[in-house]
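Dear support,

I submitted the protein below through the web form. The confirmation email said the job was done, but the results page showed an empty box. After a refresh the structure appeared. I'm attaching both so you can tell me whether what I see now is the final result or a partial one.
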Amino acid sequence: MSKVTVAIQAGGKSSRMGVDKAFVLFDGRPLIEIVRETVADLGDELILITNRPAAYTHLGLPMFGDVYPEHGPLGGIYTAVTHAQHPHTLVVACDMPWLNRDLLAYMLTLRHTADVIVPRWEKFPEPLHAIYSKNCLGPIEEKLKAQQLKITSFYGRVTVRFVEREEISQFDAHGRSFANINTPQELTNAQHDQQSG
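What the results page shows now:
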């Protein structure tokens, strides 16, 4: 099996949170550290995509700024896959406190079946919890240059394997893996869920 790069996306603006989401405390720890611990050792390389490297030097990870700045999450995915040393890149967001290692490991076993391995929990794909092959680079770059920044805009140009709800629920019965924290209220609710769960 080919080797894998894991990329944590920490490039968002965090405008709704008011502070950098990566450093918001969840269960007493910064979100970014919870995510890093969850994905540690899932791949052969772990990288961080950020345009503010000085804020993250303490993590000791290789860091890369956006190849196409101000192009949103799709630009972040492109940057991750561009800089990945390996053929497949697992991309996760820095604000997902309930990432599930077993689900991610299962998805990695599927990586040779398509160019994109992406969960679909409700009706929509979860592209910041997905695996991308190097074959995605050309189609993504086309969309970036055309300013078509919807993350799934390039799916028609590559092969996509959706990981459906029945598969996901074997590992994560409630789809918590895909919950991210964008606002102070979401943080409060998530902390409450964590304590009561």
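Response: this is the final, complete result; the empty box was a page-load delay. The chain is about 30% helix and 20% strand.
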